[in-house]
Write a structure and sequence with these properties.
There is one protein chain. The protein has 155 residues and is mainly alpha-helical. The chain is built from 6 helices and no strands. The chain has helices at 6-12, 20-29, 31-37, 44-47, 49-53, 132-154.
């Protein structure tokens, strides 16, 4: 409850919950009410973008543009470039996405690479930590890949 909004404690009353299961049940029972009680985050830039950009606090900066799915922590490809494997849909290079992370080819996606499972250790894990830029890059790449699949199905 340390990170939860203060208004939640009046509804959940954690002092009356004897076990974590009772507390979890209370949260699940009051879930919709708790979500409506949570104030939306206030970010002045997203609330009033025109007003804030007119002040001197924000200076114009050069934008750093990378390919979709690129992140600085991306390792170089481990296998030789395989341009013989060509995606039946749009290729990463045609939509300005990063090349295959396994072989470095811009002709197919990571999931279509013949090297996608070679050399990787199989392990059962319960928790993983990624930085925000890595998560954004991975999500952007996956979204673009699945959009090409959906557009191929429609046509």
């Amino acid at each position: 409850m340390k990170e939860a909004p203060d208004s939640w404690s009046s509804l959940l009353q954690p002092k009356f919950c004897k076990t974590i299961v009772q507390f979890q049940n209370a949260v699940k029972y009051h879930e919709s009410t708790l979500l409506t009680m949570t104030p939306p985050p206030t970010n002045p830039v997203t609330s009033y973008p025109n007003k804030n950009f007119q002040t001197q606090r924000f200076h114009l900066r050069k934008a750093h543009v990378n390919m979709v799915g690129w992140t600085p922590s991306l390792e170089p490809p481990k296998f030789l470039k395989d341009d013989n494997n060509i995606s039946p849909r749009k290729t990463p290079e045609s939509v300005n996405a990063r090349p295959c992370q396994h072989c470095g080819s811009g002709k197919h996606w990571d999931y279509e690479c013949k090297h996608s499972w070679k050399g990787e250790r199989q392990a059962r894990t319960n928790f993983i930590t990624l930085s925000d830029p890595e998560i954004e890059a991975l999500n952007a790449y996956d979204d673009l890949y699945y959009k090409t699949i959906q557009s191929n199905i429609r046509t």
